[in-house]
Structure formats: C-alpha cells, structure tokens
Amino acid sequence: SLFLRGHCRYFGTDGFDKDASAAMMDFMAAAENEHVDAMVSAGALLHRGVMSDDGKKIIIERDQRRAFELYQRAGELGSIEGWRNVVSCYATGEGVPMCMDTAKYIANTMLKE
User: Fold this and answer.
1) Could you say which DSSP state residue 55 is in?
2) Spatial CA neighbour of 22 closest among 5, 34, 37, 36
3) What is the pLDDT of residue 112?
4) CA-CA distance, 13 to 32, in Å (whole number)?
5) CB neighbours of residue 99 within 10 Å
6) Which residues does the chain have with pLDDT short of 50?
7) What are the residues whose beta carbons fall under 8 Å from the beta carbon of 69, sequence distance 6 or more?
8) What pTM was computed for the model?
9) CA distances from 55 to 16, 58, 66, 68, 101 (A)
10) CB distance 5 to 17 below 8 Å
C-alpha cells in the first residue's frame, strides 16, 4: 500500500496531490519492508533527482550512489528491473566506478533469460 500511495503522490492521481517528497517517503518506507518495486522507484528518483515544476527548486537531491544501492538490493531480492539498473550504473559509471566487465558479467548471469 505504501508503494501504491507513493505512486499516486508522485503523479498526483487518485485524489492525491502531486508531491515527490511524500512519494519518496512512501517508497523508502516500502523499501524498508523489502518491496522491490519501491526500491527501484526510490532509486530512480535518487538517480536523476527531482526538480520543482518550474525548475527552480530541488525537491529530491541526486544521489546516484544510494540509487545504485537500492537497485542492487532490489536485484538481490529478485527484481529483474533492479539488475537492469545495476548493469546500467556499471556501464555508465553512475553511482559506481564504470566497469564494463562487471556490467557484462551481471547482464550475462542475472539477465540471461
């Protein structure tokens, strides 16, 4: 339910005001309870950061290292999307040092289906 409420708050749907900060709190609370989709969503917000609609205020600060950690934890708990994001982080050097060998290894072992 925290993940779903976070999704509604992020997009401002189903009677909720658009509020990225509140969405992030919901995603992180769900992530603490090992909800892998919430980990991936929180990671995505941290990965790119969130600005106000007018672009003048930072709502969520970029933290690519923390995003990577959330993606990796989601992957370890069985999320294919988490592993895809881990591979992307290694391939681009976002949140971790760039390492194509590691990216390829993870892609070949965790995403080979």
Assistant:
1) S
2) 5
3) 78
4) 24
5) 14
6) none
7) 43, 95
8) 0.94
9) 22, 8, 23, 25, 37
10) no
Q: In the chain, how many H helices and how many E strands?
A: 6, 2
Q: Look up residue 33 and give its two tokens.
A: 């309870």
Predicted local confidence at residue 104, as pLDDT = 96
Q: Which position has the token pair 């989709």?
A: 37
pLDDT at residue 113, rounded to an integer: 63
Q: Per DSSP, which regions of 41-101 are E strands?
A: 50-51, 58-60
Question: What is the four-CA torsion angle of 80, 85, 87, 91, rounded to 10 degrees?
Answer: 160
The pair of three-digit structure tokens given for residue 18, joined into one six-digit string? 């658009």
Question: Would you state the structure tokens that stand for residue 77, as one six-digit string?
Answer: 């708990």
Which amino acid is present at 107? A
Structural contact between residues 39 and 70, judged by C-beta atoms closer than 8 angstroms: yes
